[in-house]
Amino acid sequence: MKIPTMIHLRGYLTLTVRGEHVEAFINSLAKAGIPVWDVTPTGAHSAELKLLLKDFRRLRPLLKRTGCRTRIKERNGYPFRARRLLKRKAFVIGVVMFFAILLALSSMVWNVEVEGNATIASEDVLDAAKQEGLYPFQWIFKLQSMDKLSGNITARLPGASWVGVERNGTRIRIQIVEASMPEKPPLQNPRHLISTRDAVITYIYAEKGVPKVAINSRVKKGDILISGVLGDEENSERIVAKGEVKGLVWHEYDIEIPLVTTHKVYTGEGKKRSYVVFGDRAVQLWGYGKIPFSQQETLTFYDPLTWRSRSLPLGWMTEKIMEVTEVQRSITEEEAKKEGIEGARRDILAKYGANSKFISQKILHDKRENGKVYMKVLFEVEETIAKELPIVYDQGE
Amino acid sequence: MSRISRKLQKWTQEVLDLPQDLLFDLPRLTLVGNKELHIENHRGVRHFSGERLVLSLSEGSLEISGTGLAIQAIQSHEVTIIGTIHHIQYIGMGEKP
């Protein structure tokens, strides 16, 4: 009922008290305020009782006064157990070792992670970190402060504009923000700009290099327009010629346009066939029957079963059979000529650059034969005529 | 205690309806079945064995007899006795208040 708290933690004793005046001893215990419990008489002049370990020393004067003797019968509780365990050396060493190893292992860097690098190799970052004393199995207490580390690693990595070092337990995270570098222009050989075809120069602008032709001069295909060689014959330097040259060029086109054209047109009627495909075999399921169309086109769709972007040799195939009819369209001669010239112009723009300019056009002759219009047209076009020619280093000098 | 003070105490007890153990140092016994007995205001153990236990009170004494008696806890004014209790008897306690 009034047993002290936490007796197991504090340790308690079971005592046997013998003497003429056990009652007096118990009274004096109560007077002195020493808590005892489970007092049981074991004989006429003896009793058993329990008391806390810390009160045992205080018993002596009381025993002397009352003329009783005690014998310890049992020792219970944590202090006694601890003392017994401490006597076993290997056990104690084991406990100490356990905590020592735990402490040692938890005060070690176990892994270093690099994050946020795209162009800098992780190995380079780890190398830089290693030179600053940050690597796996290094003691954490040997590390410099994180601010210092990040500063020093930044200094060692030229491609990084900021490096953050963060410790989370035994894990170090290095975060990198890479400096954005200007794009390097691709390396180019020294070169000339030469003409792609016979032309009359209308515009020349040499950004780099020596212009060799003037406006209104005629050039042949392969002539140097802007030279990539600077200086005279003794002191010369080869550079990458750069610039823009435009010239008048003549293109002759032979054009033939049919006056009547036939087109295939879907009527909208159709039929569907469905197949199941196993490997390279298809089994038709639906759409049996004859095809009632005189002219048709077949469209095939194959839809294999897929599993994670891998197609399986099993699938579904549908065929669409569409009825078509032919429709004829006839145009006048004027329209045919117009169409032909338009087509030729589109061809020129596609072939010689979209910034080509049509200066003039001339129909040299035209005739109508076998339902077609034949034409010969000359186009005068201003277009870019420069082309790069690498300067070979040793031109057989 | 003088007669006057005793009378005064008795008067206050009656007027204020106070429990007697507070005023007269009387023992207060709490008996749980026949297994546990809690006594307040005792004056020490006079005799102690498994069958008989005598506690001295401020006046007279209290004899408890039974089998397997043991003191579960003891303090200077309180004691808890466990065991099988057969008799509780007051010895030498006069009728005079």
UniProtKB/TrEMBL annotation, chain A:
Q: Which Pfam families match?
A: YqfD (PF06898)
Domain of life according to the entry: Bacteria
Record keywords, A-Z: Membrane, Transmembrane, Transmembrane helix
Q: Which residues cross the membrane?
A: 90-110
Please give the NCBIfam families that the UniProt record associates with this protein: spore_yqfD
Q: What is the designated name of this protein?
A: Sporulation protein
UniProtKB/TrEMBL annotation, chain B:
Its domain of life reads Bacteria
Q: Transmembrane residues, as ranges?
A: none
InterPro entries per the record? Spore_YabP/YqfC (IPR022476), Spore_YqfC (IPR022477), YabP_sf (IPR038705)
| Protein name, as recorded | Sporulation protein YqfC
> What is the taxonomic lineage of the source species?
Bacteria, Bacillati, Bacillota, Bacilli, Bacillales
